[in-house]
């Protein structure tokens, strides 16, 4: 056996090991979400004696998880839409107009990749705008947080699109908006799917930001809602696991739908613009 084959086997073994490490907690949560309260106490990796699908209906009856699901979906989808259209149009202008001002504006956005979020001034700004405790305030804050990475990926990807397409479209009479949405934006599908998935996961999974921003139980996303009702179900791990599965399933679905675009979008969008 050659060294190359041995190396390939070792890489495959490491990847399979990492896959198992990632999947085991997910399988434990899934199995325990279908167990009785007594079976789920130990949180073991074992099959349930009977499938208790009523755990999910019981969670829906005793909590506002359906409302929280809608809140999370509304916040995540709105964040994705704002970040995609805002960053793609901004990156298109910055990529095509290579002036010092546009270059400075691009690097200004990149500061957000390394600068941490300070909740105190963010909360003060939301209070001044009367957006504290609202879904709109949370959506705008999330959009601002994901904008730097989104801008970076779009800028790099658009830099690979030939300028000749722009010139041909302008000669044919395209306006600036029609040029972007009819010619350029369809070419950005890989990076658009990539940033859509990343931004959706970021908004859907986040706990800290809504914990500070949202204080109304009717407006809480799922992560915050589960924390607020955890004390009620701290002895019923089967119900806790059921709630966690309701959070996890949308992320898995979104990732599986767009996984083939993630690597291509990340690598193409990471080139130097």
Structure, described:
The chain has 273 residues and is mostly helical. It has helices at residues 3-32, 37-40, 54-62, 65-96, 100-110, 119-128, 135-158, 163-171, 176-184, 189-205, 208-213, 222-229, 237-269. Helix 3 crosses helix 13, helix 4 (65-96) runs parallel beside helix 7 and helix 8 packs across helix 9. The longest helix has 33 residues, at 237-269. The protein is globular. The mean pLDDT is 86.
Question: What's the quick description here?
Answer:
The protein has 273 residues and is an all-alpha fold. It has 13 helices and no strands. The chain starts with a helix and ends with a helix.
Based on helices, strands and strand pairing, what is the structural class?
mainly alpha
**What does the largest sheet look like?**
none
Percent of sequence in beta strands: under 5%
Helix-strand topology string: HHHHHHHHHHHHH
Could you list the spans in which at least 5 consecutive residues all have pLDDT below 50?
A: none
Number of helical runs? Answer: 13
**Regarding quaternary structure, how should these chains be classified?**
single chain
The helical percent reads over 70%
Shape: globular
Structure summary, number of beta strands = 0
Cα-based radius of gyration, to the nearest Å: 23 Å
Ends distance: 44 Å
Mean pLDDT: 86
């Amino acid at each position: 056996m050659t060294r190359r084959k041995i190396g390939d086997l070792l890489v495959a073994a490491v990847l399979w090991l990492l896959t198992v490490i990632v999947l085991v907690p997910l399988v434990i949560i899934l199995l325990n979400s279908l167990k009785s309260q007594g079976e789920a106490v130990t949180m073991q990796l074992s099959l349930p004696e009977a499938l208790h699908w009523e755990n999910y209906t019981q969670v829906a009856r005793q909590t506002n998880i359906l409302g929280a699901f809608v809140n999370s979906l509304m916040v995540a989808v709105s964040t994705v839409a704002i970040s995609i259209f805002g960053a793609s149009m901004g990156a298109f202008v910055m990529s095509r107009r290579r002036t010092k001002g546009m270059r400075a504006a691009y690097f200004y956005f990149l500061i957000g990749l390394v600068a941490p979020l300070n909740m105190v001034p963010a909360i003060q700004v939301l209070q001044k705008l009367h957006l504290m405790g609202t879904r709109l305030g949370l959506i705008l804050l999330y959009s601002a947080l994901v904008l730097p990475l989104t801008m970076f990926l779009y800028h790099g990807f658009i830099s690979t699109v030939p300028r000749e397409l722009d010139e041909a479209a302008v000669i044919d009479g395209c306006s600036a908006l029609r040029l972007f949405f009819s010619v350029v934006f369809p070419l950005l599908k890989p990076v658009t799917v990539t940033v859509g998935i990343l931004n959706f996961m970021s908004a859907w999974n986040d706990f800290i930001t809504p914990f500070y921003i949202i204080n109304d139980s009717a407006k809480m996303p799922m992560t915050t809602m589960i924390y607020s009702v955890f004390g009620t179900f701290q002895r019923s791990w089967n119900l806790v696991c059921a709630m966690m599965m309701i959070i996890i399933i949308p992320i898995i679905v979104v990732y599986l739908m767009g996984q083939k675009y993630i690597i291509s979008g990340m690598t193409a969008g990471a080139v130097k613009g």
